[in-house]
Amino acid sequence: xxxxxxxxxxxxxxxxxxxxxxxxxxxxxxxxxxxxxxxxxxxxxxxxxxxxxxxxxxxxxxxxxxxxxxxxxxxxxxxxxxxxxxxxxxxxxxxxxxxxxxxxxxxxxxxxxxxxxxxxxxxxxxxxxxxxxxxxxxxxxxxxxxxxxxxxxxxxxxxxxxxxxxxxxxxxxxxxxxxxxxxxxxxxxxxxxxxxxxxxxxxxxxxxxxxxxxxxxxxxxxxxxxxxxxxxxxxxxxxxxxxxxxxxxxxxxxxxxxxxxxxxxxxxxxxxxxxxxxxxxxxxxxxxxxxxxxxxxxxxxxxxxxxxxxxxxxxxxxxxxxxxxxxxxxxxxxxxxxxxxxxxxxxxxxxxxxxxxxxxxxxxxxxxxxxxxxxxxxxxxxxxxxxxxxxxxxxxxxxxxxxxxxxxxxxxxxxxxxxxxxxxxxxxxxxxxxxxxxxxxxxxxxxxxxxxxxxxxxxxxxxxxxxxxxxxxxxxxxxxxxxxxxxxxxxxxxxxxxxxxxxxxxxxxxxxxxxxxxxxxxxxxxxxxxxxxxxxxxxxxxxxxxxxxxxxxxxxxxxxxxxxxxxxxxxxxxxxxxxxxxxxxxxxxxxxxxxxxxxxxxxxxxxxxxxxxxxxxxxxxxxxxxxxxxxxxxxxxxxxxxxxxxxxxxxxxxxxxxxxxxxxxxxxxxxxxxxxxxxxxxxxxxxxxxxxxxxxxxxxxxx
Length: 703
Hints:
Blueprint: H1 23-32, H2 38-42, E1 48-51, E2 66-80, E3 87-94, E4 99-105, E5 119-128, E6 134-143, E7 157-160, H3 169-181, H4 193-198, H5 204-212, H6 220-224, H7 229-254, H8 266-275, H9 282-296, E8 302-307, H10 313-326, E9 330-334, H11 338-351, E10 359-362, H12 368-380, E11 385-388, E12 402-408, H13 415-423, E13 429-433, H14 440-445, E14 451-455, E15 466-471, H15 475-487, E16 491-496, H16 503-521, E17 527-530, H17 536-547, E18 553-557, E19 569-574, H18 582-589, E20 600-605, H19 611-622, H20 626-637, H21 639-642, H22 662-679, H23 683-696
Parallel strand pairs: 4-6, 8-13, 8-14, 9-11, 9-12, 10-11, 12-13, 15-20, 16-18, 16-19, 17-18, 19-20
Antiparallel strand pairs: 1-7, 2-3, 2-5, 3-4, 5-6
């Protein structure tokens, strides 16, 4: 995409410590913020912009507002204070309309910089001081040696950067300005020229200049929304390059071939019918068709299966697993936690009980001797389906013939962990399932290398869940309602938040609530307690008792989020609902409403609520659509928190904001698809593109 004769600019690759004014100590501060080269520095947005361009006369200044002024120093000097070592530098500034005092606290070095007669531009907060006069406190200043000199810190729209260690925003502004002066005017383009012209985008070098030091006519509100042509061009460039890498990865995967052709005949269809406990919905049938079509293709499948809570994704994945096993291949079924792996193992074992296939469970807590035995059987091919956590992709697990990998609750699994899976076997098919729908913007980034199947409808006969948010002062009336449900033979979940930092306190609160409910509130009903600190067999006993109807009320910390399916449960009561994330609340709500009875979700909160908590509870009471919930959650929390952590799998963008730049991302995806279809890179060109892409977006770590 480089233009003929354009400069590659080795200057961009220059380590920051070699820039004038940086040196090793400041370079270390920059490196801690992820900035190593001049390119890193120039491709970092200011956090905001301030308009310091409108110079005011000193006579017009009013206290309580920031202002830019220009004037000469009439007198200046350093004075001591009562505090030992604490000095104040003062200057009297005159602009012909009046004079004002400028004060800098504890900056004695200014004695060697500022002198009587100098012409300055200053910007700072105007305030009243003791004698009723006005002063500027700690103003930013710039000395004008030449009346026509370009100002950097004042007298213009100024970029404000995030402080980096000891490197102040002012120092960064000077460094960025100096670096921009050294940029070659014919800097190599990173966008195809015809695309740049068609979308009317400024050149790369013009965009970098205008992004950091906007022209005088730039609108401040547009700058602070990152909506100017220069900012949009650079955001689009990053999104386009990212999409190019994703599409190159898809092209590279499509070039792989599977060692075995998968067939589907009447015998396999009959085998699936025997396993199936109910009729599939149209959405499930369509998703299964797309998955099986991929499996029958000569190239490995890379597919994302999306669906709302309770849409029946697991049975679709199990039917795909059956197709692989009937073709003599092994299946790896991965969950993000041991509890969920256990749930999948129990469900899959039950469904495959009558079949000829052997199912095993392998997690981090599997005993050493049992693990050795299982590893040998997996290697020999005598175990057909292995359920586990991501321990299944670790070094010592070898499959005889891995044909399908199903990854559940992909939020905690990265793009490159999926790539690692493929190294465990001869290019297995990969099916990724998400428990919460993924907003389209994130699907284009985190899952952009996957094809997508969606199940939007819920199984027939499901009644929408009624959701109500109430303050804890009204807990008694909620308990009264719950009693009516229990009297009608229904079961109830009561869920407490569990956060690592306060795990002991949270478990204690859940335990005390279970005791209170059992002894004081519902003495005639059986109350069970479930929390993550219990041993696996203890948790298992409680879950099974609740599923069998031997426990009426299950008090639990958030371990019930996904995986438990008790059709008779009709009430989900969430305590301290304000402490849960939106997607988490939606997941919990999805534990009820799995039968034809009306179900209810009560969100009990403690006042006062933060604005964000109020928005979360409002979203829950307004909609039960998981796709809508996911979009709102992304807007409220931002992409990092949406996935639980900033983890491998979520790309490291310099400029792109996945919430703010949704439309640009979609455009970049569309344009990259068209460009790669037209230019068809292959072989070494494809490898080079992929390598630079993985380094650029920090997707090189695995696991």
